[in-house]
Every structure is written in structure tokens, then in C-alpha cells.
């Protein structure tokens, strides 16, 4: 369990984290989401005691991370896959970590096998591809068999096989009852990996929810209906208490009635339908809507087509 309480971090005039409170419970994968610059990495560094909070506190299984004598046995973390001394072999790197944390040497070969690096164990980590470096970082996180695991953007730069492998690994670690916390700015990735979501923007909490909860809160569900007798249908639906608006292409945008109810009313009145489709806001759209005001950098309007260009 990770408990973040009123956390604040200021760097000079920049407030990177601004009164953040949330909980990461065991037994599930919790995604930490937010646009670039939202304060995710800063928060993760404070969880690991690599940065001191300006205010507030954070505990891991009830104690500050820095209070643990053998921290790798409590929390395994991958913050920056490239932060491995390049001259060492993968095996030596892990061996050094194991010895300094009182972890049996036999764990080194175990975790190298688990992440698929057994055949590269004696190669210099400095020559590793990004995917291999990510795997080595994950091996280091798993080394102490810790109950809490934390990963900053673990799928960055990985090929689809690597992404699928990490997803399965994270889910199995959570299924074993561990606390799994990972950051990403990609909602699509989180939707497939996380159960719970902590969404931040400009250092503040925007939502602490589940993937299904976020979808259910969408609030913009409607039914799109097209008919050659759209005017009659719109009047009929309004008489039955539905709200009807027009899309630019002439389709009706109906709220307050299900697709089944609309179809039933139209059939009873002999009105033919050309299209009847329930519309749900996607997780990605919902996320964009929530973080719209929090994005630090946002693209401007699309570049207009040159005038007089052929269509
Ligand atoms: N050491 C530092 N000194 C000054 N400002 C910093 C420092 N570290 C982070 N910041 C600033 O704090 C804010 C939050 O940065 P942080 O890296 O935590 O965000 P993030 O959510 O991890 O972003 P990204 O998705 O781009 O990695 C940013 O405005 C960043 O410029």
C-alpha cells in the first residue's frame, strides 16, 4: 500500500506537485496518468525518497521509504531504464544490488530468467537496446521479491511483444496480492493494464477512480439516429420526453431514450430508420476532457490547407 498525503513539491517558482493525496492499494494495478509535466515522476521520486517533499508525506506499507534498512525488499522500482552503469554486465549489476540489500545471489539468475535476459546476462548493460534495458530495470525491481512495485512509463519505446509481456507481468504481480503502481501518459495503454486510475494535472489530483468508473461517469452517452422522416421522428421523441439535437450531417442526437425505445416508437409510427447507433464516449475522449485544462503543452490549430489547392 502506498499512501500519499497532501504532498507538495516546489522547485524555485515551479510547483511540480500541489497538495496531492491518493492511495495505491495492494492486489491491483493502479495507473498514474497525466499529461506531460503533470508531476508524475516528481511524485514517484518522492515516494522513493529521492526528492524531499516541500510539504505533506508519503508512506509505503506504513513507513517512509527511507526508513527501510533493505528497501529493495519493500519496494521494487523502475524509474529510468538507462540509469545503469554501462560498464557492468547485467548479471554483475544485479549481483551488486542483491549483495547491498541482503538478497540471496540465487535470485539474480532467477529474475534474469523471468525477464528473458538469461542469454544476455554477461553482456555489458551499456550496449543494451532500450527494450533490454527496460527488462534489466524490471529484473532489478523484482530482485528483492517486494510487495510494492513502481514503474515510470515502463512501456516507453518497447515493441508490441515487449508491451504485451509487461502487461501480463504487471497483472500477474497484482494477482499475487502485490501493490503495482505505474505511470503513463497513454490512456489506451492504461485501459488494457490498470484496474484503478489516479489522474493528475498540473500537480493536482483530477480523479481517483476505476477504469469502468471513468467510463460510467462519461455522461455524454447518446443515440445517433438517421431517418428520411427526421422531423417527424424528432417531434415524436420530444413528445416522449427525449432531448433531441441535430448533428451537422442531419442525424438526430438523442438523449433520454435508449436505442430500443427509439426503435420501438419509430416502428409503432411507421417511421423508417437508416441508422440507430448508441454512442459512448471512449476512455480516451473522457481522459482528454478531464485533462484538457491541465495539459502543459497543447498543439495549436491544424495547419490550414493552402488556398486554391486541388480537392
Ligand atoms: N529538478 C527540477 N527542477 C525544476 N523543475 C522541475 C524539476 N523536476 C521537475 N520539474 C518541473 O516539475 C513539473 C512536473 O514534472 P514531472 O517530470 O514530475 O512531470 P511528469 O508528469 O512526470 O511529466 P512527463 O510525462 O513529461 O514525464 C514540470 O513542470 C517540470 O518542468
If you had to describe this structure to a student in words, what would you say it looks like?
By secondary structure, the chain is α/β, with parallel strands linked by helices. 32% of the residues lie in helices and 25% in strands. It contains ten helices and 13 strands. The chain has a six-stranded mixed sheet, sandwiched between helices. A four-stranded antiparallel sheet has the order 11-12-10-13, covered by helices on one side. Strands 2-1-4 form a three-stranded antiparallel sheet, with helices on one face. The longest helix is centred in the middle third of the chain and has 16 residues. It is elongated and about 80 Å long. Bound molecules: adenosine-5'-triphosphate (ATP). Adenosine-5'-triphosphate binds next to strand 2 and helix 1. This is ABC transporter ATP-binding protein. Belongs to the ABC transporter superfamily.
- Total beta-strand segments: 13
Which regions are unreliable across 5 or more consecutive residues at pLDDT < 50? none
How do the SSEs run, as a string of H and E? Answer: EEEHEEHHHEHEHEEHEHEEHEH
Ligand inventory: adenosine-5'-triphosphate
Radius of gyration: 25 Å
Query: Mean pLDDT, rounded to whole units?
Result: 88
Computed structural class: alpha/beta
Q: DSSP strand (E) fraction? A: 25-35%
Largest sheet: 6 strands, mixed
How many DSSP helices?
Answer: 10
Organism: Actinomadura violacea
Pfam families: ABC_tran
GO molecular function: ATP binding
Domain ABC transporter: 2-227
Amino acid at each position: 500500500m502506498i499512501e500519499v498525503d497532501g504532498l507538495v513539491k516546489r522547485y524555485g517558482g515551479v510547483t511540480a506537485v500541489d497538495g496531492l493525496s491518493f492511495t495505491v492499494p495492494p492486489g491491483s494495478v493502479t495507473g498514474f496518468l497525466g499529461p506531460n509535466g503533470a508531476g508524475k515522476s516528481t511524485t514517484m521520486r518522492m515516494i522513493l525518497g529521492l526528492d524531499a517533499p516541500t510539504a505533506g508525506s508519503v508512506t509505503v506499507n506504513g513507513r517512509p521509504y527511507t526508513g527501510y534498512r533493505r528497501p529493495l525488499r519493500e519496494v521494487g522500482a523502475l524509474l529510468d531504464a538507462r540509469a545503469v552503469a554501462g560498464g557492468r554486465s547485467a548479471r554483475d549489476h544485479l549481483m551488486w544490488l542483491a549483495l547491498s540489500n541482503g538478497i540471496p545471489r540465487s535470485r539474480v539468475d532467477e529474475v534474469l530468467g523471468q525477464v528473458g535476459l538469461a542469454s544476455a546476462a554477461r553482456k555489458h548493460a551499456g550496449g543494451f537496446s532500450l527494450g533490454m534495458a527496460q527488462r534489466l530495470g524490471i529484473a532489478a525491481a523484482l530482485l528483492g521479491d517486494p510487495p510494492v512495485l513502481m514503474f515510470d512509463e515502463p512501456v516507453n519505446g518497447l515493441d508490441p511483444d515487449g508491451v504485451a509481456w509487461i502487461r501480463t507481468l504487471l497483472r500477474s504481480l497484482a494477482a499475487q496480492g502485490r501493490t503495482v503502481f505505474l505511470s503513463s501518459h497513454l490512456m489506451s495503454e492504461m485501459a488494457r493494464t490498470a484496474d484503478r486510475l489516479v489522474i493528475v494535472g498540473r500537480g493536482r489530483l483530477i480523479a481517483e477512480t476505476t477504469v469502468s468508473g471513468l467510463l460510467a461517469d462519461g455522461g455524454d452517452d447518446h443515440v445517433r439516429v438517421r431517418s428520411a422522416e427526421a422531423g417527424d421522428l424528432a417531434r415524436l421523441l420530444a413528445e416522449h420526453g427525449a432531448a433531441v439535437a441535430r448533428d451537422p450531417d442531419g442525424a438526430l442526437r438523442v438523449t433520454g431514450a435508449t436505442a430500443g425505445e427509439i426503435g420501438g416508437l419509430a416502428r409503432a409510427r411507421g417511421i423508417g430508420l437508416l441508422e440507430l447507433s448508441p454512442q459512448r464516449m471512449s476512455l480516451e475522449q473522457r481522459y482528454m476532457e478531464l485533462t484538457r485544462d491541465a495539459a502543459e503543452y497543447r498543439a495549436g490549430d491544424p495547419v490550414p490547407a493552402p488556398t486554391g489547392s486541388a480537392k
